[in-house]
Amino acid sequence: MTQPKALLWDVDGTLADTEEAHRAAFNQTFEEVGFGWHWDQETYRELLRVAGGRERMEHYIRTCQKDHVGDPAEIVRGLHPRKTEIYNELLRAGKVALRSGVLRLVQEAKAAGLIQAVVTTTTSVNVRTLLEQELGEIVKWGEWAAIVDGGDAQNKKPAPDAYLIALNRLKLAPTECLAIEDSENGAKSARAAGIPVLVTQNDYTVGDDFTGAVAVLDCFGGPKRHCRVLEGPDFGVKYVRVEELRQWHETGLTPSTSP
Ligand code: XBP
Ligand code: MG
To answer: How far is the CA of 258 from the centre of ligand 1 (A)?
Structure first.
C-alpha cells in the first residue's frame, strides 16, 4: 500500500470549529465602529464561500453595502486587524475547541512518523495562537514541517496556490500527501493541486460539493464518539486512525472506476 508521507491539515473548520469565533469577531468589530452590520449564521454561511476574512469583508461591502461611503478595500484595511485581535482574544480565552478526534489523530500520525503541515487561508497569527494553545503539547510550533497561511498564497482557496506552496516547501509529490479539509473551497484547492483530499464536514459546510474527495466524514471521532462516513468507502471504521488514513489515501490514488 502506498503510504502518504505527509498530512496537510486545513485549519478553520477542520482542526477546530473556529468559524463561530471568527463570526463573533467580525460582528464585534462592526459594532465597535457603529456600522450597524451583523452577520447571522445564514449570512455567514453564504459569505464563507469567499475564502479569506479580508476578501470576505470586501465582498460583503461591495455586494450588500453598496451605498456605504468609502473605498471597500480601505475600510477592510482599517477593520481586519481589529477583527484579528478580537479573534485571538477568543482563542486565548479558550472559546475554540479542537474537533473530535483531531488531537488523538495528530498524536498518532506523529508517532507513526508522518510529516504534518498546515495549509490555511486564515491570518498567520490566528494559526500560531490556535496551534500553540490547542496542539502545543503534542506538536511544538517548530515541529510542523510547513505552515502555509493566508499571507503566503496570491490566490486563496479554491485556487491551488496554498497547496502548491506546501508541496514545494515539503519537496513532496502531490500523491505522497493527504489533505484534510472541511469545505468545498478547500477540497477543490487540494484537488486542483493533485492532492488526495479527505473531508470532515461541519455545520457550515454540510451540503457543499465534495466531488473528488476520497471520503466525507462527520468527524474523526474516537473510542467514545464514533464517526460517520457520509461519502466514500467506510472500511467498517468506527473512528479514524492512521490506518484508515492510509486506506483512504490508497483509494485516492487509484482512478475511480465510476464514470
Ligand atoms: C478559513 C478562512 C479564513 C477564516 C477567517 O480558512 O477562509 O479566512 O474564515 O480568518 P481555512 P481571517 O483555509 O483554514 O479553512 O479573517 O484571518 O482570514
Ligand atoms: Mg477550512
So the answer is: 33
In 124-210, at which residue ranges do the beta strands (DSSP E only) sit? 147-148, 177-181, 197-200
10 Å Cβ neighbour count for 81?
Answer: 12
Report how far residue 248's alpha carbon sits from residue 250's, in angstroms, rounded to the nearest whole number: 5
Alpha helix ranges (H) inside the chain: 19-33, 41-47, 53-64, 72-92, 102-111, 124-130, 161-170, 184-192, 242-253
Answering whether pTM is above 0.90, one says yes
Q: Is 10 a catalytic residue?
A: yes
**CB distance 158 to ligand 1 below 6 Å:** no
Residues whose CB is less than 8 angstroms from the CB of residue 95 and which lie 6 or more positions away in sequence, other chains included: 21
Distance 249 CA to ligand 2 centre (A): 19
Annotated active-site residue 67? The verdict is: no
Question: Model confidence over 46-69: pLDDT tens digits?
Answer: 999 999 999 999 999 999 999 999
